[in-house]
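Researcher: Next entry in the queue.
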Amino acid sequence: MRIAIFTETFLPKVDGIVVKVCRLLEHLEAHGHEAIVYAPSGSPENYAGAKVYSFHSMSVPFYPEMSISPPWAFVDRTINKFKPDLIHLVNPVSLGLAGLRVAKLYQVPVLASYHTDVPGFAEHWNLGFLSESIYRYARWIHNRVDLNVCPSEFTRRQLYEHNFERVEIWRGGVDIDLYSPHKRSEEMRLRLSANQPDRPLLLYIGRVSPEKRIDRLFPIMKAHPEARLAIVGDGPARADLEEKFSETDTVFTGYLKGEELAAAYASGDIFTFTGDKETFGNVVVEAMASGLPVLAPNSGGVTDLVIDGYNGRLYDPNQKESILEAVAPMIKDRNLAAAFGREGRKMAEMRTWEITLNELLENYRKVIEKGITGGGYKWLIWERESFTEGISELRNRLSR
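Model: Structure for this entry, 400 residues:
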């Protein structure tokens, strides 16, 4: 197969979406398929045998680590030269529109993957009044493709509730060789626990930003002074959180990568996940592969991964005491925590990248065999009115 991928985010930025795209490109190369990538400026020229075309991009004001490229990027010449069997739009917002345009114009089957609950995050950015407009815009894009995929059953139900169509599952995967209980390191545990390795060690790994709700861990540290907390990652909320947690036994490491990151996972006792608007939670399945029990909200895609009382505990994100009630047994009983961690490892072994990416490639084949739904210049003409309506509503809401 020949696959053209349009992604709103790519290397050198590293997040769950970028990891997924990189793994996809590696998988395509390993199985004899060809790919090209369209991405924001600053991207590498090539990755896993795929040529990367990058376009001028600008930062998003309320999400400065993310840059987007304009939807009018001219990609016709390179698409015509490559002649893709399918176009894959990754989290389409802006650059993805250029991919949608050429897919319809040149009658190429197109698949889109939905990865981020932007309407949900908007509430944390104090932009909740825009949630419905954001859904309408996303729905306008996703309902124009031949098939949509999303990371979890929870997210699929959410999308169907908002009238998205043709949605299948593409779950995130995990490298069970890299992330493993065998990567436990006493040296890393000393680092994460500030030289107090015998105390219970809670671990957070991920972006350090307001929407991740890391502040939910503060009551745990106040209620359990015997515990330590390590926050691995960086982001705009780090300074505020360092000040908030200054009275507790908390270590901030910044970003870790590769073997160092794998050692960090395996050297903790309990993995804490605090975001309740996540569509999947790549870090959760990595923690499970590393043999850690997971503390997570009973909301979002993470509910596909964590079974309460089996491989971790779920708490109600809307009840302040719930997180304390859920974590206490795991802090007090390390044998219980370890038993949860062993079950998590077994579950992670069924979610390798080979398994999840083969599922995506099977969806590719189905879309290619079925062919496209609509297209050509006629599509461009009648869709223009719908697109204009969506943009007008968004502009009106912003001006209020």
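Model: The first helix runs from residue 16 to 30.
Researcher: Noted, moving on.
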